[in-house]
């Protein structure tokens, strides 16, 4: 059994802050796991970070299965949560159960994440009743980017803020074991955290949440485009990688790599 279980994550509420990072491949997932991070999210952000799309909307179940399986193979202790991609759970509860079940059964995820508020409560109840742990996700829900009119801060009016508090409570009552709060005013992140009995995992929702999640490509400095203000870069890997690729290209071109020490001796 893994060190990090759904029960232990629930029990961390109010006692221990919970870091979470995204991973899309085995090598990165192994390093995140070795750093002792309890939650690894195979986000459908892979559509943008790895597959080159502008939104998460084109991501398919087959892509999520492929990347989740790679991540699961690298992880010993962290809980692996697979994002359910757009239209893999919206059309019916049966479709949601079938697709969530595939992420658990075929890809080795420990839990799934779905986007949406109180209107997802029936699906959350159905999934958890069938043994599938669910992480909720409210606020800026990228699968609704067209409806929201862009990647914008949510919950800025009193009505919208009150609705998000109700969504959080409804999802917790339905059985989510954690709840992602994306792009909300910090005061609202803290307010939702106070009224929700399960850990909240913030991304752009301020320091008052029970945990934080970042997209690993963003915090590692692998992305070229301007990043939202909530991202802190913990490394600048893009320039280092470009320098390494350029140095390699130059050495191959000028014959300084490979050298004798990089080859094998012949003979018996
Ligand atoms: O897809 C993703 O990476 C996410 C996180 C940003 C929460 O949903």
Characteristics of this structure?
binds 3-methyl-2-oxobutanoic acid, 268 residues, globular, TIM Barrel, 11 helices, single chain, alpha/beta, 8-stranded parallel β-barrel
What would your notes on this structure say?
The termini are far apart. Helix 9 links the parallel strand 6 (about 180) and strand 7 (about 200-205). An eight-stranded parallel barrel has the order 1-2-3-4-5-6-7-8, surrounded by six helices. The protein is α/β, with parallel strands linked by helices and about 270 residues long. The chain is globular and about 75 Å long. Helices cover about 40% and strands about 15% of the residues. It has a single domain, classed as Phosphoenolpyruvate-binding domains (TIM Barrel, Alpha-Beta Barrel). Helix 6 (about 120-130) packs parallel to helix 8 and helix 8 packs parallel to helix 9 (about 185-195). The chain is built from eleven helices and eight strands. The structure holds 3-methyl-2-oxobutanoic acid. 3-methyl-2-oxobutanoic acid binds near residues 41, 180 and 182.
